[in-house]
Amino acid sequence: MASFVVLTINGLSFGLILFLLSAGLTLTLGLMRIANLAHCGFAMLGGYIALFAVTNLKLGLLEATPIALVGTMLLALLLDRTVYRWAREVSQLQQVMLTIGLTFVMVAAVNLIFGASIRALPIPEVLSGNYFLGAFAIPIYRLFLVALSLLVAGAIWFVIRFTNYGARLRAAIDNPRMAQCIGSNVDAIVSSAFVAGCGLAALGGALGTSMYPLEPTYALIYLVPVLLVVAVGGLGSLEGSLLAAILVGLLDTYSRYLLPAMGGAAIYAIAAGILLMRPRGLLGQHR
Amino acid sequence: MNSPEPSATLDVAASAVANSLITRTVSAWRVEFAVLAAVMIFYAFGQDYLALASTALVTAIFVLSLDLIVGYAGIETLGQAAFFGIGAYAAGLYALHVGTDPIIGLAVGAIAGALVGYLSGEVILRTGGLSLLMLTLAVASVIQEIANTATSITGGADGLSGYSIAPIFGLFQFDLAGKTAYFYSATVLIVGLAICRFIVESPFGLSLRGIKGNVTRAALLGIGTHRCLVAVYVISAALAGLAGALSAQISGVVGTDSLSFVVSGNAMVMLILGGVGRLYGAVIGAIVFVVISDQAASVDPKNWLLFVGVLLILAVRFAPTGLAGVLTALGRRMG
After folding, report:
1. For residues A246 and A254, what is the distance between their CA atoms, to the nearest angstrom?
2. What is the pLDDT of residues B147-196, one digit of tens each?
3. Domain range spanning residue B156?
4. Tally of domains within chain B
5. Residue A139 belongs to what domain range?
6. How far separated are the first and last CA of chain A, in Å rounded?
7. Main-chain phi, psi angles of A136, to 5 degrees
8. Where does the chain cross the membrane (chain A) (predicted)?
9. Phi, psi (deg, nearest 5) at residue B229
């Protein structure tokens, strides 16, 4: 029973970080209809900016994370004005190529600056240590991540459901043309959501290094689970992404523990099954 | 294309008729002839680079298989390496446990690719757009995961090696200089190119273009869209399996990295670079990419990925039709 609780906490923290990594992609896909394969690259950039702040500016992780957040969002803003502007004008296949190209550039840049070794950020003093449940130890940092991610998810939900900006965002996802017609500046909403989504990814990238360690190929390795979450959850549906991310985190952790011979294959099989029954994902809208 | 001029048809001389027949044959098979000529010329001057050239030819076959589904049927995939890897493993296992004949080995690779293509295609081609892209990636990931875990069969991370391949038709022994491998892969590429061209020019190929253009309209015209898509997916998977088998026979090793996302991604890059939906674009893209990557890897391996990334962004931005498109445009301007 206790081992079940530990597994669940682990699965939850994996899943919730995965949600932070994929939330922005869901919005981008819903809004811009761009298959942005470079999305995990922004999480990676966030992680490496935090690493830079920790090693060169001698900051703690908690001080470095806001810097990573702002830095990544500035970069995202810059790219939104250039590469992603071009991406809106070309076919889906070319978008895929454009964003793969961007990912390659990010991977190479990180490799040049930080080297190829695998890095994790130090856990701050306050949050280190374990919480003991019988004979099983749960790292306090994991509990902190679960709480923080749930808080962030709640904040996103509040903004989207209850603010004027959120209403405009939902309108832009549902029907960008009509939203434009009634005087909503869809272009600005799309850009702001893109930048905010990259910020969320950076948050996940900086805080989740104990589970998703930093390495130059980060942007490619974690692209697969992130795309999985977005596709299973449904494009443009943040609730769907949250559900899918938690599901992926939990099922992956359970299956690796119970059926180690299967490795990571179980989760792909389940995801394929879900997508076959619901091609638009768990909570995807029908267009 | 080059139908005989009216004045030429009026000419009753038998030689002219024979000439036009030759011209027509050459014209219809011009891509295959161009590749054949390039293979011969390269053999005359590039003896020291035959191993690299064989890699380029095998890669060209693989990218050709990708063009068949991406360029003609509009199936966008990031998991084509699954079939390449399956073909490589099938040929490697066949050589290791059953027999060493290379031609049968190729067939085994193609059949294995086709089988996996059918099993996965029948399921995933019911979706479209991003879900499809995702599912192709998922299929390749599952297969790679299995290859990694089933160490008793696949050798796990160490891969397969230590198998030998008999001479082709019992005549041509694989040599150290790689001459046999070079002509072997060139032959397979030319045959593959001819088969692909036959397919895309057939009524079936036209149906595929119709589906790519507008699925609903194609279905309303009475085309069994799902069946057509599965069929072309299986053919493409067989060709990719063939390329994998060829690579396993030539290099003598099969590793799990032959199934990886990087292989699928690079093939996409080559196809875009060369030009989508032209068949010969796939060949140009593969050759250019393999040569540049070999050069860059020997000069500056660290910045290679940076170069590819920038190249891709610039290619989509400034040459969306690829090298083949640029060449065609140049040719048109020259007259």
Report:
1. 12
2. 887 777 777 777 777 777 777 776 777 776 677 888 888 989 999 999 99
3. 47-334
4. 1
5. 16-215
6. 44
7. -100, 140
8. 6-27, 34-54, 66-84, 96-120, 140-160, 220-251, 257-277
9. -65, -45
